[in-house]
Amino acid sequence: MAEAAESWKLESFIDSLVHELDKARDTLSLKGITRKLSYAVQDVSFDLHVFPQYDRGALRFRVARPGDEGASRIAFQLGSITDRQITETSTAPVSGDDLTLDEIEGIEPEVKQELKKVGVTSARDLERLEQRNVDLGAVVQDRTEGRAKVDYADLADKINAAKRGKAQPMVKSMTLEPGSDGRLSLVLTGSHLAPDIAPEGYPRATLNGVAAELTEARPERVVIALGPENLRAGSNPLSVALDPFAELRLDLKRGGPKT
Amino acid sequence: MSRDYAPETLLPGLSELIEMLVEPALATEGDLSVEEMTVDLPVELQLTEDAGRLGLFGSAPTQQIATSVLPVWHRVRLRIGVQNDG
To answer: Closest Cα partner for A186 from A110, A257, A251, A119?
Structure first.
């Protein structure tokens, strides 16, 4: 049993109409392969008999039913565009260092669907909208009729988490090495230790709650200088944050003076 | 009152309707071929909802006898032409 749509927003109708036209175009193109000519829908216009309804500030429509009188008439026309126009007006395909919307976890399916409808298909599209100060929260809230909310900070976290999925920091070895100046160095080796995608300020380290100097920060090697002036007898908590999601916590024990 | 559609009462999808209209043009053979066709017809529409997506189903009039309650006829105009590249 197909559930009848009682009322709908005009953009939903047009989205579905475009979807049906795309399906028809694909079928016609397929048939055109075996025929000498291929056909396409050049334009389509609709005259609908509808009743507008205002629902919580949103304009919705209901198609007139048999026996209904006094329906409004709404007319619109959709035109086709050429392949060249599509190329000129379409966004570039998602590149290797970008993420598609589907790869970003934690975004509700309904939000993803509405973002795609407004042309957002990748993490880079989201960044572009933020740069232009588009109020994405209001867009999503309006299109989902208040059912879903998003903000850039939340999306940025999810994007970073998804990007990190491709390049998670991995520590393979950790050694404490004495330096020529009497300072100790903690040397971490591994992969993605200082990833390019990490926000500014990472990696970073604190010793006894005080920022420690990083003398080297490369993806495969990070060196943290541990000055004797910062080490105290007994426990010395050391924290190394490689990115917002990966933090190492160590406790360096320093023996007291021998008696 | 439920207005859901049983499978046997559901009209064809709009894309299928378009394909059915174009099929005769595709079938022409010989030196002359159809370059463009315009279809202007009343349609009965059924709108369904499935997981937030609106489904469009429609058909040209099939009822030839006037009855006390007739379906509501909307109007659709399609222009279908030879596809040019570029």
So the answer is: A251
Our CA-based measurement puts residue A59 at a distance from the nearest CA of chain B, in whole angstroms, of 16
- Taking an 8 Å cut-off on Cβ atoms, the answer to whether A41 and B79 are in contact is yes
Please give the full DSSP string across A4-25, using - where no structure is assigned: B---B-HHHHHHHHHHHHHHHH
The residue written with tokens 């003398």 in the block is A215
Residue B86: predicted pLDDT: 45
Which distant-in-sequence residues (6+ apart) come within 8 Å of A227 by Cβ?
A: A183, A213
Nearest CA to A90 out of A103, A81, A102 is that of A81
- Judged by CB atoms closer than 8 Å, whether chains meet at A39 and B77 is answered as no
* Residue A62 DSSP code: E
pLDDT class for A50, splitting at 50, 70, 90?
A: very high
Strand A72-79 and strand A39-55: pairing? antiparallel
A220 has pLDDT over 70:
yes
